[in-house]
Amino acid sequence: MLIGKRVYLRALEPERDLEKCFYWINDREVTRNLLFYPPVSREAEMEWLSKMSRHGVDGTYSFGIVVKENDVYIGNCGLHSINELSRHAELGIMIGDRSYWDRGFGSDAVRILCSFAFRDLNLNRVYLNVYSNNPRAIKSYEKVGFRQEGLMRQHRFLEGVYVDQVVMGLLRDEFQE
After folding, report:
1. Distance (Å, rounded) from C-alpha 112 to C-alpha 18?
2. What is the pTM of this model?
3. φ and ψ of 61, to 5 deg
4. How many domains does one find in the chain?
5. Closest listed residue to residue 61, CA positions, set 85, 78, 86
6. Could you tell me if residue 148 is inside a domain?
7. Given strand 147-158, what is the order of strands in its sheet?
8. 110 backbone dihedrals φ, ψ, rounded to 5°
9. Are 158 and 35 in contact (CB under 8 A)?
10. Residue 38: helix, strand or coil by DSSP?
11. Is 11 a domain residue?
12. 109-146: burial string, b at 16+ Cβ within 10 Å, e else
């Protein structure tokens, strides 16, 4: 387990986590800002969970996010596309339980994940992509220390409009826990 102030990160457990993950990944409000389009079958979600539960497979480490106070599983996060030569990885996070949005749980999970990336995996840079119409996420990443590095204009067509994709990054020497 990786422990933060408000949440801890644990290994994904396919049998235990399937129902919540299946519900979240098919909730359009939850997936609106992900590079993902529902619907997803229960079988496909189980395959994904099984793959993500094996750390290090395909350059990925994925975790379940659990609130310390009440042991409620609220989402998933991970490091993907780990490049061992250049020492960088892409960060992804989803708080699936909407009752935990806007309460700082995501920022805590991102902070824990970055600590793991820099201390345990010896990475130098963690980056992510976020849509410009998601100011809640951008603010959360900035709280951890991420900076905007670039902008891909009109990169995604979402609900009838083109949306910019913001590239953000955090270097090891910029990270403060």
Report:
1. 23
2. 0.93
3. -125, 120
4. 1
5. 78
6. no
7. 2-3, 7-11, 61-67, 72-83, 88-95, 125-131, 161-171, 147-158
8. -65, -40
9. no
10. coil
11. yes
12. bbbbbbebbbeeeebebbbbbbbbbbeebbebbeebbb
Which pair of tokens denotes residue 132? Answer: 């410009």
Q: Which of 31, 41, 29, 146 is nearest to 94 (CA)?
A: 31
The number of helices, as runs of H, and strands, as runs of E, in the chain is: 5, 8
- Each of the 177 residues of the chain gets a pLDDT tens digit; together they read 999 999 999 999 999 999 999 999 999 888 888 877 778 899 999 998 888 888 766 789 999 999 999 999 999 999 999 999 999 999 999 999 999 999 999 999 999 999 999 999 999 999 999 999 999 999 999 999 999 999 999 999 988 999 999 999 999 999 987
> What's the domain range around 105?
2-123
- Environment class of residue 27 by beta-carbon count within 10 Å: exposed (0-12), middle (13-18) or buried (19+)? middle
Question: Whats the size of the chain, residue-wise?
Answer: 177
